[in-house]
Design brief:
The chain contains two helices and no strands. The chain is an all-alpha fold. The model has no long low-confidence stretch (mean pLDDT 89).
Length: 56
Amino acid sequence: MLHTPLLKTLPVGLADSYASMRLEIASAYTLVFFVMIVPLLMAMQWASARAQRILS
């Protein structure tokens, strides 16, 4: 829904770069994706563990 000719979302850009075999662009998209997702997942794990300790 947010994909326009001038603006691509990260997953759309990642898929487009892999489909067009632009591997240097795809690897940059992948690195950005991991830099954004890994800290988010770690924060969610930390929050979940903390909630379990509080409820126990």
